Amino acid sequence: MSDDVLVVFTPSGKRGRVPAGISVLDAARKLGVDLDSVCGGRGICSKCQVAPGAGQFAKHGIAMAPDALTAINEVEQRYDRLRGLQAGRRLGCQARLQSDAVIDVPPESQLHRQVIRKSASERVMVMDPAVRSYFIEVTQPSLHDPDSDFDRISSALAQQWQIEGLTADLPVLARIQKVLRKGDWQVTAIIGQAEGMAPRLIDLIPGFDQQPLLGLAVDLGTTTIAGHLVALDDGRVLASDGLMNPQIRFGEDLMSRVSYGMMNDSGAAEMTAAVRAGLGDLVARLADEAGVSARQIVDATIVCNPVMHHLLLGLDPVELGQAPFPPVVSDALSLPARDLEVPIHEAARIYILPLIAGHVGADAAAVVLSEQPQKSAAPVLVVDVGTNAELILGDETRVLACSSPTGPAFEGAQINNGQRAAPGAIERVRIDPVTKEPRFRVIGVESWSDEDGFEDAVKATGITGICGSGIIEIVAEMRIAGIIDRSGLIGSPEQTGTARCIPDGRTFSYLLHDGSETGGPRIAVTQGDIRAIQLAKSAVHAGARLLMDEFGIEEVDRVVLAGAFGAHISPLHALVLGMIPNCDPARVTSAGNAAGTGARMALCSRAARREIEAEVRRITRIETAIAPLFQQHFVAANGIPHATDAFDKLAGVVTLPDVGFQASAGRARRRRG
Amino acid sequence: MSDDVLVVFTPSGKRGRVPAGISVLDAARKLGVDLDSVCGGRGICSKCQVAPGAGQFAKHGIAMAPDALTAINEVEQRYDRLRGLQAGRRLGCQARLQSDAVIDVPPESQLHRQVIRKSASERVMVMDPAVRSYFIEVTQPSLHDPDSDFDRISSALAQQWQIEGLTADLPVLARIQKVLRKGDWQVTAIIGQAEGMAPRLIDLIPGFDQQPLLGLAVDLGTTTIAGHLVALDDGRVLASDGLMNPQIRFGEDLMSRVSYGMMNDSGAAEMTAAVRAGLGDLVARLADEAGVSARQIVDATIVCNPVMHHLLLGLDPVELGQAPFPPVVSDALSLPARDLEVPIHEAARIYILPLIAGHVGADAAAVVLSEQPQKSAAPVLVVDVGTNAELILGDETRVLACSSPTGPAFEGAQINNGQRAAPGAIERVRIDPVTKEPRFRVIGVESWSDEDGFEDAVKATGITGICGSGIIEIVAEMRIAGIIDRSGLIGSPEQTGTARCIPDGRTFSYLLHDGSETGGPRIAVTQGDIRAIQLAKSAVHAGARLLMDEFGIEEVDRVVLAGAFGAHISPLHALVLGMIPNCDPARVTSAGNAAGTGARMALCSRAARREIEAEVRRITRIETAIAPLFQQHFVAANGIPHATDAFDKLAGVVTLPDVGFQASAGRARRRRG
């Protein structure tokens, strides 16, 4: 056995000479190799498992001797007996290097594990949570060494884990005495290490604690509150759930809630209490689903729009309802969970992502974090449609953001047969360009309306109305089928060749479904519905064009539809409608719940928090309200897909008939008169 | 008017060339002269008043022209009209330098004012509180500049006061929106700048706020809670008050409270609630006395012994009651006032001084801060006597500390006619060495018992017993008068020549006062009383000797008696009793309530907080319980003043008669048998 040995770790390729007899774990630490350990090398946690190589490694210039590592020892044998050690694996803290060796660190033994996010772009995220646990051995006090219990924990963390300057809140301090003694001076310390703050003792548990630390990622929306329960060691989602935002009873949309706050002295406080209670319900549900205690949740992140942000924090949202819309505070916040009355671990903090502006929220910031326009080579437009559309346009050079007031049409409000996305709502529609006959799908039923079994299947819910994604598809399909013209007018039965176009006052409606025979509603799309959708989509389009003007481009390379709504609308139909600017349909994708993904990223990675805080400071905010060109863009966007833009990227995918019904509307009026 | 001018500021002597036309305030800032300003030079606060010189200043080489400063302007005239400007004074922010000048900064215009502390050593303290107010002008938001309200405040503080990285808690954030608009974007920000923490917005007040910021300094004792209300600009005490610690109902001394906590499940919590309620009462009383609102109290400091420390914080004190006495936490703490339920400003923090050890408290640390043994050239012994004696011995080279268990005798417990220090208690005693007749003073009565008017004056309270300081004087006086010998034995009437020595079982008692004729008690000092005092004082003496051994000295240069008790006992009598080691009586002084002074210093000065935190880490803790020599010192100290030490420093001040009553005790026994 020579004095020092050469060791190469794979897959990192880190190599170096270390003293013979050193443990593999210590060698890994010396060489900066990412090898996990919670117990600090005491053979308890098994996190440091490695797979030693064997034989010749020409690439590394190493011929491994059979006894390059010490033989399996008692600690490993016991561990194998009790919990099973995979063949070829060793505990890195037990196996010692006797001669040159090549050691593989399997993915599950890496502290900073890489997690592939299932998003359009499949990016890799490195686990780097703000809360971790550390097993420590604490020296016992004696008359010769009567330091405080807290000093002992602090010293143990400094010596055994290089964590300096520990702090703790009173409730944790009140427990440490008993826990140290119960654990016989061996304890697991749960430590919060948030950016810019001293390390904080969140909890202390007797002995070596095997329970995984959990985190909560919340997308707090105007209508729904969605949450994920996440394991903080590897980022896996243990439970997901959502509930209606209990604030709904104060107003369906944001502006009605802001008004409620203005009209009622205790209005804002009531709404704050309601949303906090909702978060409490969500926590209880998630913990129940995953079969864990809510106290295991030691960290949380929340993303939300500015009004929800203020109402959650107990800040008056009134200024957000009027120009110049200044928020009370826009920076990222890290607040004690108990200050927000969220019933997770009593010493947990909640990280709230920064607002981009008074009308571009932390949810938009989370979308930026998830979709990373700032890393795109070509300009990408990210569109998050709700009551407000939040628009982000950017590439590596710069990122712009604005919001545009769409109104509630996309949520099914102001639509004749509109309704929420709920069982019974029509969500997908196709219209035959020849027969003009529709077929559709209803939420809660697998088959299309023209397929076998549909009628039976739909009996449970009935066909009750049209939800937001449904109305977008219908209007686009009507345009493709020549039932409406570029200006949005519905043609007469004669002009369109279908009896489904029915006179309705001075205009026509398109009958989508007549349920009256079976006691259900007649579901039709009125001219008013088309106008409402035109206004809403023009706002989105105009906002996007304003950003493009500012960016100095005529075209975007790709479009990402974000948000729960974006996940349900068809990219092609959004293009035909002209909600988004002219773009190759193959380059329009849905990002799913990108805000929720951003919340999970911030939960799993402190680097992600730093990144979004820096990025938000860099984003240029564009105010649609004072942009001279906004109105002009808005008017031109009223056409379907656009009054002046040919939308040439649609060519080859879909052909829009060149119809015009101006006269027919006149005829309908005359007929009525 | 030349391009730049020479200006000299007195008394600092700081001088330099500044551009002509600059305001005196700006010149002071450029040259690093300590000139106060709260409004930042807007002519509102009047804190920057200066006294310009006139004529020749040979020393500085300056001949001041009559128009060296600009003439008094409108702002100054208005200020003079409204609030009065002292003759010869100018507002530093208004007066501008036109040619060379000498400018005096009067003491009240210095930001870091020097305050002479009324202590034995009359040290100077520089005001440097952790909370200050700053007047700021905040830019209004517009669509072109829609930053958050908090960002605006943060920027204004950075630009106008160089305070970077502001933070705020939720309750303050919830108010800033309204305050900014009410103050028309001119506001006074109350900022906490505690050591090692980011600057914190404590409150925001519309306009320029004239109300002084207040601080609370508390000495939380086992028996009493004493507090001072202090103005944070100049350190003046606006009100002082004290009340009984409501925990008394759970036990008079610390150990009985620790036991109560051990015996009753919710015992510690009840005591925590009681002491916090007591602090609340104290706050209410102090605010009432000073005619201020408790919300004006924006900072607080607390000193206390380790058991009170733990009970206040809600930490279990049990471990403090048994070796090795480890506290839960000993570092200085800065905690939100609301966490301790102290009803001062809701965003205030409370600074609790560090514990020195599990049985040497934050009160002892405060004594160190006040008495500064670490700055003494020769070794000084600081003695704080209560149920425990806390002893500190140090000089510039090192500081040692220990505690020694005295028991409750010095508090009047275990004494035949002992009682608390309350009206009617005998507190001072003199015994005529020839006649052996006593005279005394009673709490609540000005005159001595042998003076005219005493009998009338004392009728209100009666003469009810002997308090702690009284018993020390009596025992020492009995020794001086030859009524007891070195071993502490009381002599017979024959041996002492006075009928006041009365047989009492096998021993004698000394009759101090016979109130039986007027229906009052007979007050006598029994042999048991002497023994109890001997045990108590031996513990103090032995602790001091142990520190001296460790320090390697045979004698201390001076002794400081600290604590409320120390303030009431006579240094000479403490020496005669041998409670403290042999020392020149002229070098034994009382420091008054040094712990309370230390609390006030920490309130007024962040430098003082840094100093005591650093000093406490440097202090060597000596454990009397494991010191082999402690018992030996204790036994030798049983003599009065000492069994073996001659106490030669008493020579020339008082002569102790060389009497011995060993035989007489035997005689008393025989007489009884």
Automatic annotation (TrEMBL), chains A, B:
<dbReference type="GO" id="GO:0051536">
    <property type="term" value="F:iron-sulfur cluster binding"/>
</dbReference>
<protein>
    <submittedName>
        <fullName>Uncharacterized 2Fe-2 and 4Fe-4S clusters-containing protein, contains DUF4445 domain</fullName>
    </submittedName>
</protein>
<dbReference type="InterPro" id="IPR012675">
    <property type="entry name" value="Beta-grasp_dom_sf"/>
</dbReference>
<feature type="domain" description="2Fe-2S ferredoxin-type">
    <location>
        <begin position="3"/>
        <end position="109"/>
    </location>
</feature>
<dbReference type="Pfam" id="PF14574">
    <property type="entry name" value="RACo_C_ter"/>
</dbReference>
<dbReference type="InterPro" id="IPR042259">
    <property type="entry name" value="Raco-like_middle_sf"/>
</dbReference>
<dbReference type="InterPro" id="IPR041414">
    <property type="entry name" value="Raco-like_middle"/>
</dbReference>
<dbReference type="Pfam" id="PF17651">
    <property type="entry name" value="Raco_middle"/>
</dbReference>
<dbReference type="Pfam" id="PF17650">
    <property type="entry name" value="RACo_linker"/>
</dbReference>
<dbReference type="InterPro" id="IPR040506">
    <property type="entry name" value="RACo_linker"/>
</dbReference>
<dbReference type="InterPro" id="IPR001041">
    <property type="entry name" value="2Fe-2S_ferredoxin-type"/>
</dbReference>
<dbReference type="InterPro" id="IPR052911">
    <property type="entry name" value="Corrinoid_activation_enz"/>
</dbReference>
<dbReference type="InterPro" id="IPR027980">
    <property type="entry name" value="RACo_C"/>
</dbReference>
<dbReference type="InterPro" id="IPR036010">
    <property type="entry name" value="2Fe-2S_ferredoxin-like_sf"/>
</dbReference>
